[in-house]
From TrEMBL:
This is Flavin-containing monooxygenase. Its EC number is 1.-.-.-. The lineage of its organism: Eukaryota, Metazoa, Ecdysozoa, Nematoda, Chromadorea. It is an enzyme of class 1 (oxidoreductase). One of its GO terms (molecular function) is N,N-dimethylaniline monooxygenase activity.
Amino acid sequence: MNRIWYKGEPQDVVFLNRYIHSFQKILPRSASNWAIERHVNERFDHGRYGLKPKHRALQAHPTVNDELPNRIASGTVIIKPNIASFAERDVIFEDGRTVKDVDTVIFATGYSFEFAMLEDGNLIPVTDNQVNLYKYMYPPQLSPKVITYCAHLFIFTRFCRAALERCNRQQKNILQ
């Protein structure tokens, strides 16, 4: 998924607003999935490169990367099938191909989506890989005069400066 959405708008600006938040509550999840998948595949056809996930767009946290599609298309990153097994210095893939004399294999297996550091996970519960935070910062059940939890925001915006500035602005507005 690209950081830039329609007409050059950063995707966090497009999706993190009250209008979209309210609209997503009434729109069927299948329609939201269809719209996001259509837009994402307009720029980079994931099926063509064997990267189409088995899940729908909103069933997992997206990988946001502007450079990877260009690297795949140019051949500087080569997509390989799943690993079937290892030999002494070889990697054998599920399709039977082998790469010999491999120095290093890096397993990118994701991350644990939880907030155990905040009241042992009870303050911000995660259910079915979903969290209920307004603007990915505010637990709606708490008082409006609460300290903002900004770290979670970076999972979705990947260190976006605009997101940090908005977080600081929101914090100042709440505390006034």
